[in-house]
Design a protein that fits this description.
Elements (H helix, E strand, L loop, with lengths): L1 H13 L16 E9 L9 E10 L2 E11 L8 H7 L12 H12 L4 E3 L2 H16 L7 E3 H12 L9 H7 L11 H16 L6
Parallel strand pairs: 1-4, 4-5
Antiparallel strand pairs: 1-2, 2-3
Amino acid sequence: MVLKTIRTATDRWSQKDSEFSSMFEPYTGDEVIALDCEMTSLDTQKAELVSIAAVKIKGNQVLTSDKLDIKLQKPENLTGESIKVHRIRGVDLLGGEVLGDALQQLLEFIDNRPIMGYNIAYDITVLNRFIRPRFGFSLPNKTIELSQCYMAQLQRATPDIEPDLKFETIAKKLDVPMVGQRHTALGDAITTALMYVRLLKDAVPT
């Protein structure tokens, strides 16, 4: 945590005159960005980005019309095993975005808003592996882990129950329908956003 604080302060100084300087300003609004990425590996040091999606949440409303949905150019390590998970084939990525352009769009869309997601630390770690060399900083945004929000609320209601934190289980417990096919970036981002809003409304899992 101390190292992250020092790094963010250093990044803030280095970016003070850049187009991304606003990302380091304190956020005072009521919007959160639900983010999901599909990748080629579970290893954060080897994973390549296949698709990136984000949707805005304003207050307790999911703004499905205000979203980002980007498929990237085919990475070299797109394998049959990863295709089984996200079902994105090489042919599906024809005409995909160049990675640098996609990250630029993502940074502009997020700005300094908090970022929320399921297993969000994994997504942020991989994104920063590509953002820092290109832009000179790592994402400084506050992050919100959906599963931790769910667990905290469940344990307040039923402290003796060990929670099942699988994505599908949380969605079912919160009575949130899966949007699109599981392991598609946009579908998972919107589903995650809907679950988060349910938790904001103090929906107690049953």
